[in-house]
Amino acid sequence: MSSPSLAPLLERAVAHLAPEMPLLTELGDLFTSEGHELALVGGPVRDAFLGRTSPDIDLTTSASPEQTEKLLKQWGDATWDMGRTFGTIGTRRGATVVEVTTYRADAYEPESRKPIVAFGTSLHDDLIRRDFTVNAMALRLPDLSFEDPHGGLVDLAARRLRTPSTPEVSFSDDPLRMMRAARFSSQLGFTVDDPTRTAMTEMSDRLAIVSAERVRDELTKLLLSPSPRAGLTLLVDTGLADQMLPELPALRLEVDEHHRHKDVYEHSLIVLEQAIELEGPRTVRGLGAVEPVSGPDLVLRLAALLHDIGKPPTRRFEAGGGVSFHHHEVVGAKMTRNRLRALRFDKDTVKAVSRLVELHLRFHGYGGGEWTDSAVRRYVTDSGPLLSRLHLLTRSDCTTRNRRKAERLSRTYDDLEVRIAKIQEDEELAAVRPELDGNQIAETLGIKPSPVLGRAYKFLLAVRLDQGPIGEDGARHELLRWWAEQPESRDR
Q: Which cofactor does the UniProt annotation name (predicted)?
């Protein structure tokens, strides 16, 4: 861009940074007074031009990590080593956190999962090793001179992702950048230019050297973005998903004229989009406002994306041209558990997502509302704390184009939620327990703590779910009737 066209853009970007400018200027003065360079770089600069508030203040410097640490200790309330090997020192003043990284020029060895870190000698050398040109812009401090050696501002205006060096070199240096391209396409609505997309496709297998934790973090950021579909589609189309989430491209089941069924891949993306639309405040016919699932919710979005991954391995062609996917929810839950563990998700997330996948078909047994109160109780207790998410997942799983059918399913689920609310109000299902505790069971049966006591407890819990509250006397009656049928009772 020419200087006249750049000037107003730069003014607006600096104006957007106004709250941080006194701090940035002070840091710039501190570093330059000691003979070092300092610049605001990457995401904060990009976001300032976009008018977005960046969550980070990322700075780069010619100073060594040791020199940086010494200066930051003079300036901040607290200073810590965020990764001295990688040249990053963190500091905090008040509520503001700043990260300062020494100029870098690192790369991966062909088979290594960790980059070889090499410190650079100039800002331009540092910028060329950045992932994309829109992140390879900098504002020198304290004078605010703008550095854009790779045309990042032009690409920003075009909403285009392009690498500063050749994409082959960039992705070889850090293969995770290919996933980052997908993430930015979802977060920022950018498109990937053709050479970059071609390199992503040709080098997709290079992603295998990146640690599962780094892949997980990029996938998480993508899924929590406003429009995950764009990034997920890019991952699948370039073959990157085959490396880190192969269950997703496997959903693209072939459809022919003799075996017609839904495009499971497209269906899953629509379910994800519909689940996202339901996040936040919502109302239910007959109930009004109900407990929301605040967005963006990672557990819900993972479950929506993965709920049908059990279909490919369970697909069967039936006589007459039909297709079945019997027990795909059970198979899918196991596959989900294995994949999320491989990606190093935490135990709670793995457990919650796989449970939602397992339960996602349960509603379809509800039919026109024929469930007994017992079945409704089990629906609630089986979902436990995931009930609100299960409501959204189940509603999102309707992607029919038949308007009447969609409205009928919506009304039926409204009815189920009303029934759940009524039973919860009457019976406090969230804390449902057998009406006799372990001590009372042992006393009634005259037994000591043992596996049979556990069986008796589970039996009374089933009675509670099937019959609702029946009182302690009723529970003892049912317990004694059950006990009379157990082989242990005849041994006494």
A: Mg(2+)
